[in-house]
Specification:
CATH topology of the largest domain: MetI-like fold
Largest sheet: none
CATH superfamily of the largest domain: MetI-like
Shape: globular
Number of strands: 0
Distance between the termini: 66 Å
CATH class of the largest domain: Mainly Alpha
Length: 303
């Protein structure tokens, strides 16, 4: 007779079966506690940084700060060049990246044949989303500044940021389209719709919340990038009133403006002006993220 078939073995198995769920519960609670502590630490650090930035830069926020150009005197300096340049960049980047990224996502997910070349493209697009941003700046400088002859202009900076966020938008579009139940697409085909009509009228409206969310989050990343536009030719100050809106003129951006403030020796630039510029950047980012949430909820209600 084996030990497991004896009364003592049966009793021990019963104790082990009862203790196993209790041990799992303790491990789950310990893991939840670790996650809670990590979240609290992150929130405390973020709140501390926000309080420090707000306390340093809030008093500098005024109409003159938004409408003035960079000055040698800290009390007269402003972010007009960076603000108008960032807004111009975002308009151009959104106009180029959204149709190209969504179109590529639709093609790869619905219309592209399943072959070795398509799989090779998909793998490389996913890998490109993790390439450091300065690489895109160097690539843009080589392609657009020197080969294409565009120079260090606003359109060069917009193209650099478009290359940076295109892989993110393509991956987000593919994931959003993949989340749509196949029965919606197949049902439209069964009723006589063409593949493009089924995609346009049935699949895209359902996938649009995820596509918009991924696009706006990618644009939020682009608005805070410094390395690509520095390599592409962003300037610290530009006094011509129409320059930030001309695609073939020099341009500035908020990250470059904040960098310029921090590298100056005066404490007023390093603390107050830089903190005020950071507040403006955070406001732009929060506005864009809020827009993503609003658009997602609106399309979700329509769906």
């Amino acid at each position: 007779m084996s030990l497991l078939s004896t009364p003592a073995g049966i009793a021990r198995d019963a104790v082990l079966n009862l203790s196993a769920p209790a041990a799992r519960v303790r491990r789950e609670r310990a893991f939840q506690a670790v996650l809670l502590i990590a979240t609290l630490i992150a929130l405390v650090v973020m709140a501390t940084l926000l309080f420090d930035v707000l306390s340093d830069g809030a008093r500098r926020l005024s109409t003159d700060f938004f409408t003035s150009y960079t000055s040698r005197r800290a009390e007269d300096t402003g972010i007009r060049t960076g603000l108008t340049g960032s807004l111009s960049l975002m308009v151009m980047v959104a106009g180029m990246s959204f149709p190209i990224g969504v179109g590529a996502g639709i093609y790869l997910e619905i219309f592209a044949p399943s072959n070795r070349f398509t799989r090779f493209m998909q793998i490389n697009i996913a890998n490109l989303a993790g390439v450091p941003s300065v690489v895109y700046g160097l690539l843009s400088a080589a392609m657009f500044v020197y080969l294409a002859g565009l120079g260090r202009t606003l359109i060069t900076g917009a193209l650099a940021l478009t290359l940076l966020i295109l892989p993110v938008i393509i991956v987000a579009s593919r994931e959003a389209i993949r989340a749509v139940p196949p029965s919606i697409f197949n049902g439209a085909l069964a009723l006589g719709a063409t593949p493009w009509q089924a995609t346009q009228k049935q699949v895209l409206p359902v996938a649009m919340p995820g596509i918009l969310t991924g696009t706006i989050l990618a644009l939020s990343r682009a608005v805070g990038e410094t390395a690509p536009i520095l390599v592409a030719g962003a300037v610290f100050s530009r006094r011509a009133d129409n320059a930030p809106w001309e695609p073939l003129e020099a341009f500035g951006a908020l990250p470059v403006q904040v960098y310029d403030f921090i590298k100056r020796p005066q404490a007023e630039f390093q603390i107050e002006a830089a903190a005020a510029g950071i507040i403006v950047m955070l406001t732009v980012l929060l506005t864009m993220n809020s827009g993503a949430i609003i658009l997602r909820n609106r399309y979700a209600r329509k769906r």
